[in-house]
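Appendix B. Raw example, untouched.
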Amino acid sequence: MKRENEALVAKCETLTLEKELDTLERDKIRNGLYTPVPERETPVPQSNPNDFVGNVTLKKTPLKPLSIVKAATYDGQSSWRDYRAHFETCAVINQWEYSDKGLHLAVSLRGQAQGVLGDLAHNSRDNDSLLQALEERFEPPNQTELYRVQLRDRRQKASETLGELGQDIRRR
């Protein structure tokens, strides 16, 4: 009888702790401090000796935590092509949905790039519209002649390595 009481006390303590953890997680989610980790169901053998062999219950256990990589900010001064490659990589690592990508891109903009966001209508601030507006502003396709002239006049700067010069020319 004493063992049964001890087992019941231990089970009650475990249930109380699980309820407290659930409450803490809900509070963190409500306050935006925590992103829940996906769970999977795994069979866990029953610990009660009165149950027959092979009786299992399903217990939720967290999957491998997701890597969270914060995208750098973009201010319009550096290469849009480079930033977009960085941002797309972050989106893949963080497994962002289409709508999430647009939101994350919007909050990563600073300076002149943030002005592009301000110019968009509220109903057209989705990922594709934002990408198109940023490309039109920072990577216009109709400036090929300007790029040719810049490339023809390009000289290596005193502080620039040959590799940096080559990379800059390839980007143009």
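End of appendix B.
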